[in-house]
Amino acid sequence: MTIHTRIKELRAAAELSLESLAARLGVSWQTVQQWEKGKTTPSIKRIEAIAEALNTTREYLLFGESPQTKTGQSSVSTESEGANVTESSAQAVPLRYSVDVKNFRRVFVVGRAQGGLPERIWTDGDYPVGATDEYAELATTDPHAFLSPIVGTSMVPKFNPGDFAFVEPGTAPEIEDDVLVRLNTGETMLKRLISRRGGIQLASYNEPGTLLYQPEEITWMYYVAHYVPARKIKHRM
Predict the structure, then answer these.
(1) Cα separations (Å) of 118 from 44, 79, 153, 159, 213?
(2) Ramachandran class of 199: left when φ > 0, alpha when ψ lies in -120 to 50, beta otherwise
(3) Which domains, from first to last, does the chain contain?
(4) Cβ neighbours, 10 Å, residue 51
(5) Are 182 and 218 in contact (CB under 8 A)?
(6) Phi and psi at residue 226, in whole multiples of 5°?
(7) Alpha carbons 18 and 153: distance in angstroms, whole number
(8) What count of Cα atoms within 13 Å lies in the side-chain half-sphere of residue 24?
(9) Three-state SS for 182?
(10) HTH cro/C1-type domain spans which residues (predicted)?
(11) Which residues, 6 or more positions from 197, have their beta carbon under 8 angstroms from its beta carbon?
């Protein structure tokens, strides 16, 4: 079984249509269809989001194994499966991917105060300001990664109320990335970065219009890797 068939089978098991999975990932349904047919293979960055959307692990998608079966770091080639690390080329090339289970750790939920998230997520210590007893076990190399509750419906269907945004401040946001933005007024919002010309231009997935802010109006803007479903959230004992 290849990564392509695993994506297709997991999508079917989750009773998701091509359109539904595509909406969660922020891609077209044709892109998902090409993955499943083996015409293209999602990038490593995209595989992480697919795993979250299908309630599995990236290791299972890549190798047919869960991270719990890994005891260290390995480099695996799936050349025989015709895997490809780009979405734009149909030519099969070896997919080499290093799995390091040490990257799986507790990422805590930072609670929202009445006015939004705090000006500083992290103090000089190693524990985020406003961190709750809730967390998810996620793979990240960003020591400052955190989870933020999703409120509102402007980013549906990719981000649904009740789920959580996985924020990695160490990754610089690029155009078309999802971002968590805090204004100097204290307002915090989850949006899509669509332009930096003439200011920071933000948009939603299901609401018309855009928002424009000057850089000096923004306290911080952090990269959002993907959503984390509420069922993945655990409580610290």
Answers:
(1) 32, 47, 22, 21, 19
(2) left
(3) 3-99 (1.10.260.40), 103-235 (2.10.109.10)
(4) 20
(5) yes
(6) -175, 175
(7) 22
(8) 23
(9) strand
(10) 7-61
(11) none
Q: Which amino acid is at 34?
A: Q
- Where is pLDDT greater, at 2 or 210? 210
H-only helix segments in the chain: 3-13, 18-25, 29-37, 44-53, 58-63
Contact 212, 147 (CB under 8 A): no
Of 19, 48, 15, the C-alpha closest to 31 is 19
Q: What is the pLDDT of residues 119-134, one digit of tens each?
A: 555 544 444 556 678 9
Written as six digits, the tokens of 213 are 């802010």
pLDDT in tens, 8-47: 999 988 888 888 898 888 888 888 988 888 878 887 778 8
The label of the residue with tokens 């490593």 reads 44
| 3-class secondary structure, 191 | strand
Length of the chain: 237
- Locus of tokens 């290791």: 59
Torsion angles phi and psi, residue 61, rounded to 5: -60, -40
Q: What is the maximum alpha-carbon separation in the chain?
A: 54
pTM: 0.57
Cis, peptide link before residue 157, omega less than 30° from 0: yes
Of the candidates 135, 136, 140, the residue with the CA atom closest to the CA atom of residue 58: 140
The SS3 of residue 154 is: coil
